[in-house]
Amino acid sequence: MTVKLFTPLTIRGVTLPNRVVIPPMDMYCAEDGHATDFHRTHYGKFAFGGAGLVFVEATAVTRTGRITNGCTGIYYDSHVDSFRPITQQIRDMGFKSCLQLAHGGRKAATQRAWQGNGPLTQENLDAGDETWTPLGPSAIAFTDGWLEPKEMTRADMEEVIEAFVVGAHRALAAGFDMVEIHMAHGYLLQSFLTPLANQRTDDYGGSLANRMRFPLEVAVAVRDALPDEVPLFTRISATDWIDGGWEPEDSVELAKLLKQVGVDVVDCSSGGNMLHGATNSNLTRGPAYQAHFAKLLREEAGIMTQAVGLIRTPELAEQLLQDGQADLIAIGRQALFNPYWAHHAAEKLGVTDWDTWPPQYAWWLSKWKRGLGSMDEEPLV
Ligand SMILES: Cc1cc2nc3c(=O)[nH]c(=O)nc-3n(C[C@H](O)[C@H](O)[C@H](O)COP(=O)(O)O)c2cc1C
Question: DSSP strand E in the chain: where?
């Protein structure tokens, strides 16, 4: 049986050498949006790691769209150069890169993850962080104690659409093979989608069609900004996990429209819109707890999907592909722990193609394996 995880996938003009993806993971340590040495080393590990596609974290299209003061950005021309070494290294190793274009919306101007992910405190501001008024569909704070967002005007929306377009151009200039629009986790675009955050009474609120209007305008504008051969992904929260919120059947409708406007892959995450809804990385859920959403959209909307969320073993990743649940498998936290996850998965699934490793390592490792018979970390005596 063909191992699907290591079967190439062509999306528009780009061929991924395998179906393993490193999903976007914010590192919260950029300098006014610029990627730093930390990012170059961090993504460099993934360039060596064997995943066919490496995402670079949620990257703000405007300065006030940053979730935290430490988020990467693509709002200055100078950001382009800071990403170039990252995309170059991934390309040099034979893999592809994708930049996640994001706007934090009402969850912007908050603390870095390790500071608590909450609203900025006086201590944070004294330490040099800036704060600002975030934007949202309605003037409803994420939860008590968070900043109340400014209800966006049509002019604000046009500015944000333009920022996504400029961000897409800069991403290509920085060498990314494709981009993803962040429409998940309660950030700006998802907050328009869900009735829990969007209580507008104009053309951008109320009915499902109205709530989808602004996110779709962004998708149309970004698609137009990209050459035909460049793939476009969109990450969505397939459900808010809250009664009366965004539901999987809404995601089916959205995915159909995303497909119509030229989005190629829906990256299926969930939650993040309200404090009491489950988050996308909830550990109380079981393995592959979001994969059924990827399957639903793949079947009902006929669009390629990426499954993500507590997928840790090569066997499970392969099974999801064999079952037709998704086209791509993202490995997040497990890859932070083990950046060589994809190489190890190839080993486990019997695809021992040492060519996928950097030759500087492969030469030694192939001999090592022949000698030891196994790469397991077991004592030699
Ligand atoms: C450190 C960290 C940072 C994250 N940052 C982002 C991000 O920038 N954009 C995003 O869409 N999801 C983000 N996520 C969610 C991951 O992309 C992924 O969906 C989630 O961790 C579940 O997958 P996993 O169980 O394989 O880790 C982040 C997760 C982690 C652990």
Answer: 9-11, 14-16, 20-22, 53-60, 72-73, 96-102, 135-136, 150-151, 178-183, 232-237, 265-269, 304-307, 328-330
Structural domain count of the chain: 1
Pair of tokens at residue 233: 């992904």
Query: CA-to-CA distance for 168 and 310, rounded, in angstroms?
Result: 29
pLDDT tens for each residue of 15-36? 999 999 999 999 999 999 999 9
Q: How far is the CA of 374 from the centre of ligand 1 (A)?
A: 32
Q: CATH number of the domain at 259, please.
A: 3.20.20.70
Tell me the pLDDT tens digit for each residue of 262-319.
999 999 999 998 776 655 556 667 899 999 999 999 999 999 999 999 999 999 999 9
**Residue 129 resides in a domain:** yes
- Residue 280 lies inside a defined structural domain of this protein: yes
Q: What is the pLDDT at residue 48?
A: 95
Domain with 322, as residue range(s), is 4-350
Determine which helix (DSSP H) or strand (DSSP E) holds 168, and give its type and residue range.
Answer: helix 154-173
76 is a catalytic site residue: no
Structure tokens at 137: 């569909």
Substitution candidate for ligand 1 out of 26, 99, 331 with most atoms within 8 A of CB = 26
What crossing angle do the helices spanning 154-173 and 208-225 adopt, rounded to 10°? Answer: 30
Is the CB of 237 inside a 6 Å radius of any atom of ligand 1? no
- Model's pTM, two decimal places? 0.97
Partners of 136 in beta bridges: 151
Tell me: pLDDT of 47 over 90.
Answer: yes
Distance from C-alpha of 237 to C-alpha of 356, rounded to nearest angstrom: 33
Q: For 85-94, what is the mean pLDDT?
A: 97
Q: Which contiguous run of DSSP H or E holds residue 89?
A: helix 78-92
